[in-house]
Write a structure and sequence with these properties.
By secondary structure, the protein is α/β, with parallel strands linked by helices. The protein has a single domain, classed as Rossmann fold. The protein has a five-stranded parallel β-sheet.
Length: 202
């Protein structure tokens, strides 16, 4: 009974919270973002999904992004930030959100802060899922086997983890300095990790 009351209290305390979800490839960000979305009844904002939706809808930014991707180049930060601004201006975001997949480097983190400050939607918490390297490698290897994903080959995994450590890990320090960072152990069952997140955010 006490645990149930504590869980309810924790959920009420994180209503309307704006969360950035951080973690290395294989840390379980996508899985936990989906679960948190359902538990907190807030939108899960994925930059990959926003990009695909804008391209499919043929919005001005989507058309621009499609042309860039057709050349094999990466979509610029300005385009992604513009798409995020369009998403953040929608009504459902006013009650909170979970942002997954962005920012990936310090420049993006600073640009995101500037955008959200301008929109009066500052980040409340940056949630970092901490998972050991061996567990990350095991999870990604299992995903590659199950799904046949080329981006989870051993060589690709090693490269992605290197890029993460070089570019994305400093974002953790950025949010640590701002006082927004919350670290949660990301190993264990999916449900165990979710309960740790709820407790940490509450």
């Amino acid at each position: 009974m006490l645990a149930s009351l504590q869980a309810t209290r924790s959920l009420s305390e994180i209503t309307n919270m704006r969360i950035v979800l951080l973690g290395a490839p294989g840390s379980g960000k996508g899985t936990q973002a989906t679960l948190l979305k359902n538990r907190l009844n807030v939108p899960h904002i994925s930059t990959g999904e926003i990009l695909r939706a804008a391209v499919a809808a043929g919005t001005p930014l989507g058309i621009h992004a499609k042309a860039v991707m057709a050349t094999g180049a990466l979509v610029s930060d300005d385009i992604v930030l513009g798409m995020l601004e369009e998403r953040f201006r929608q009504d459902d975001v006013q009650r909170g959100f979970i942002l997954d997949g962005y920012p990936r480097n310090l420049a993006q983190a600073r640009a995101l802060d500037q955008l959200l400050t301008r929109l009066a939607l500052p980040i409340d918490k940056a949630l970092q899922l901490d998972v050991g390297e061996q567990m990350l490698l095991a999870r990604l290897a299992g995903r590659a086997t199950a799904e046949g994903r080329a981006d989870d080959s051993p060589q690709a995994v090693a490269h992605r983890l290197h890029v993460y450590q070089e570019q994305t890990a400093p974002v953790i320090d950025y949010y640590q300095r701002s006082g927004a960072l919350v670290r949660v152990p990301g190993e264990g069952s999916v449900d165990q990790i979710l309960e740790r997140i709820i407790a940490a955010l509450g």
